[in-house]
Amino acid sequence: MKMQKAVLALLLTCVFALSACGNAAADSSSSAASSNAPVSAAESSEPVSEEPSAESSDEENSEEPSEISDEASSEESDVSEETSEESEESGEETSEYVYEDVNFAVYQKINKDIYAWIRIPGTPIDYPILNRKGDNEYYLKRNYYRYADTRGSIFTEDYNNRDFNDPVTLIYGHNMSSGSMFGSIQKTYTKKSFMQSHKELQIILPDKTYTYEIFAAVPYSNIHLMYYYDFTNTYVFTEVMNDILSVRAMNAVVDKTVKVNPDDHIVILSTCLSGNGNQRYLLLAVRRDAE
User: How far apart are the C-alpha atoms of 252 and 246, rounded to whole Å?
Assistant: First the structure.
């Protein structure tokens, strides 16, 4: 009897042991399966990157190149226009300056230093007049676009006011071999017949036009007239004018029928004298009326 009870107890112990092992294996398998299962975006603690769809990507890319292309085209156009202007200015032709009517609103948008216009009908002289406050040499080698240009510009200095009411206003321009700027003065006004048929000179301002009569074209000292002489002084005006008009030279032409006095307003066009770097060639004109 005791033997039977012992066997029964042993059997029950084995059954309980096997049952426990089975449960442990099941738990282990379940845990492993759970760890290998994919984690959803909602359950994951790491941020999930959202890649744009093919459609979204194509739409964005289809708009941007169009805008960039238009921008680039606009920039190329601007550069092209600037290059074109600079190219024109560096040439020898002067037709870009010649206009029947001068629109100062347009020209002063290009350069505020443009304040007047000089014109001698029947000659190449038809140019803007510039003045750079504080820098009298600025336009020696710059055109009215302010680009570097060996022809420079037609300009006045700070010794003169911009209203042309000074007794003498000195206007500078290079003696270009092409005949541009003031390059035609010595070539043409050394002939008395040419002066007689081309005596009118115009100074055009935004609000009026002054008409002058040309009366002398002479070689003269390269002394700085505005720096050394005070033309508001009656004696100085008279003496200097008499000295200029008394020049005797092959290339000097003076109309002695024209009389000037200290109350007049004179413009003097000054350029280099061909063949002599120590002298200037001057063209003188006296104001006759204003329109």
Answer: 10
Distance between CA atoms of residues 137 and 262, nearest Å: 28
> Considering only CA atoms, which of 182, 153, 155 is closest in space to residue 170?
155
CA neighbor of 118 nearest in space, from 222, 207, 218, 200? 200
> Distance (Å, rounded) from C-alpha 143 to C-alpha 138?
10
Integer Cα distance of 97 and 149 in angstroms: 15
Q: CA 178, CA 90: separation in Å to the nearest integer?
A: 13
The whole-model pTM stands at 0.67
> What is the predicted pLDDT for the residue at 215?
98
231 vs 277 pLDDT, higher one? 231
Cβ–Cβ contacts within 10 Å for residue 138, how many? 17
Q: What angle do CA 93, 81, 100 make, to 5 degrees?
A: 45
Query: pLDDT category, 27, cuts 50, 70, 90?
Result: very low
